[in-house]
Amino acid sequence: MLPDTYQTIAQPSEGLYKEKGSRFISFAYPVDNEEEIKTIISGIRKEHFSARHCCYAWSLGIDQVRHRINDDGEPSGTAGRPIFGQIQSGKLTNLLVVVVRYFGGTLLGVSGLIQAYKQAAGDAIGNAVVVTKTVEYTLEIAFDYLAMNSLMQLVKDHQLEIINSQFDLKCLLRLKVRAARLQEIESKINGISGILDCQIVQE
Asked: Does the model's pTM come out above 0.85?
């Protein structure tokens, strides 16, 4: 089976790092999409409107292909990249980490900034509970009543989770299926006589 599990954090968490008067307040959030990320960052910017910088990094998806870093005015590579480095070192994804900096009046230099953002991000992640999640899809199946026994036997044999069902002249069934087994289950469902339609739907 192809990998279909990933590690993220169970709930939002916070951290703090202080250096030469500057405060680096960090926030870690489990996230599922870019819209959610934009909303969270916007909320943090409003709450900490007087902060000098609001830097962040995020990662989405099992392979971490979708990710972004933002230095928000800090020297290039001194904020977003070390934050993202902490996400990577924890082998985490579907995670947003934001670090807000309140300037203390003393410049920290490039190495000092990298260390500060790294430590702040690491503190927020370290204060969180890491959980393993499974990538799942929802299949909606339309079928004739006569196909019900065969379909319910398949559900039982493969221990699939039924989300909801409607049994009438034309029946509907919604199932949760792990990503790694999706192709196999779809093929078996479509092999049952009386299946009218089988498609992935958004919950």
From this structure: no
